[in-house]
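Assemble and predict.
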Amino acid sequence: MDQDLKTELSKHGIFATSFEELYNWGRKNSVWPLTFGLACCAIEMIATTMARYDLARFGAEVFRPSPRQADLMIVSGTVTKKMAPQVVRLYNQMPEPKYVIAMGACAISGGPFRDGYNVLKGIDRFIPVDVHIPGCPPRPEALIHAFMALQEKISAQQLTGESRPRHLKQELPSEFPVPEFGEHGLEPAQNDEVFRNPLKVLQG
Amino acid sequence: MILEDVRARLQAEIPGCQVDLVVNGSPSAQNSLLIDRQHGLEAARLLRGLELDYCSNVTAVDWPERVQTDKIKSKQVVDGVEKEIEQTVKTTIPGYLEVVYHLFSMSKKEGPVVVRMRTGNRTDDVTLPSLTPVWRSAEFQEREAFDLYGIVFDGHPDLRRILMWEGFTDYPMRRDYVPPPDDDLEALGER
Amino acid sequence: MGPQHPSTHGVFRMDVRLDGERVMRLKPVFGYLHRNHEKIAETASYLAAIPYTDRLDYLCSMTNNWGYALAVEKLAGLTVPERAEYIRVIVGELTRLQNHAGMVGFLLQDMGASGTPLMYAFRERERVLDLFESLSGARMMCNYMRFGGVRVDCSAEWLSEAAKLVAGFGSFLDEFEKLLTGNEILMARTQGVGVLPRELAINAGVTGPGLRASGVNYDVRKVDRYGIYERFEFRVPLGEHGDVFDRYMMRVLEMRETLKILEQALRDIPAGPIMDPKARLRGLRPKVGEAYGRIESPKGELGFYLISDGTPNPYRYRVRPPSLINLTVLEDMCLGHNIADVVVILGSIDIVMGEVDR
């Protein structure tokens, strides 16, 4: 619709929009995160919700303790192999539409603890991640930027066609297999449908 | 609390107890006592009686088998002339696991008194007496030594893995631990 | 209970067996944040291990650095110049301030005051973090202490900002206490709950405010007299009953004592160098030997045990974590209480999982 016509109509008190915009506007302004802090990044996440860098003004009003009521999982901190099955299980319990922000270097790729025997080298080995935030720990402003990037991603999703979000595509899975504890590590070590090996991506 | 006095007390009151002084080369001058493991628990009770009531730190150390090269000078007769010859002697020190306890006294505000115990080897003779009945603070730390090094503590109330999951079969902090090749990037030599 | 739970201070799990609502047995399970800090430090040099110590107790990175620097200084025989010692005391005590404020905030959030005291505490914490950021470049992971001193010098403006913060903190504490200490709900939920007897506290190796709440006068700052702590006049508060209320009051009283130390340090800090001229940072090869260095961190006694074999990497690097040892008595304190009290007791011990699991 023509933007000038929209503005003209709104001056008369008539608000014109499409279903898509309305749907996405409602979704993006009420993303409720799950209380899921693992390590040091969790403290920066808590600081972001405190009085100085208020995250509630972006719609993340309440942090829900139960995954059944949350839309967003902010994986903040190092995911260890001992914790990884619980993370995937929590992700499976969240209802669609659900999003994941990987906060901090540890959640993206293992971070400074990459050499560890108990460290999972990035949570995107098992679950799909929407926004990655680098930093160790990222500043609260960076987390707000990531939140805004997620909101832009949501508002760019369309209701029909190829770029519709995952929860409207019936054939895509919304639950991912939970890894088991093996004798030397996790089995399987990664979920090949979700994990894209950066080296292979670079090699084309 | 002077270490030599403690050593003398231990040797006097527990017959058959081997106590050796391990000298520390660094400027910290924190020498330690090596106690043999058969009398470990008795020695611990005696130390607790000496008002060393606070066991601060329990550390496990892995000493794999190493070869020590010493140069020994000796006088030998060569071609009828006495000369001083330097010989290189290599001794193999067998590997063992070691547990170090740092003890303090809260009532007398003294310390540290450092006590060590060693196992026989790194493979099958890896038991040590647990000092948890004497100092409860050793409970979790001995479990960690069991989890990460494989030292079995006799007499520990609840010896099971603490940091890794049940079912994990390796002892990760040992010097010869090899992590699993679970990463395509690392298998290709890319870091 | 856990590892994902709104009140478990990080990824911590407790296997609790209940009879109705009373606790019969409690076994803590951790390891969910085991990041192999000790193994990584064996392959890293002494200097490279300092950023990893930041991430141990991630709320108090300055005191972690200090403990490690102290242990290496004992191992290598380095001395610290006077100005650096004063700066260490100032940032260490500022760390203690923000940690205790945060602990009280988290404890009250666990009790149900959902967020308000935490907001007040974090407001003050942000001011302290601003100071740290202007000094060391990072809010939380400061990476500031070095072997033989500190990394950068603080300016006169920084010192005057710190003095302003210290001057204003007293009124914040008064406001905080007015709202909390006389509060009926707080008193009913914490007095008589989670009693830790004196003998058990000593035997189980509990240190820090939890030990002093049970009546044992043991503060590593007074016992070891490390750094220049003997120049400062401050008291060590002691509790009588060893319950949650005493542990809470320990933090509040220690914050007041810390303000005294800060006033004295900010007044007396001399000019001078900030690094030991003999210290080599890169390629530090201490002589073969070992050392155990410990400090009074806000959580308890934080110790570092280092064995050197003459190479640039430590042969054995061990952290003595106060939070882990303080957890030994969790079961004893919780037996017979209701499940709601378990959360409060855990909050009063003040653990940080980065330190428990390393």
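The first strand of chain A starts at residue 33 and ends at 34.
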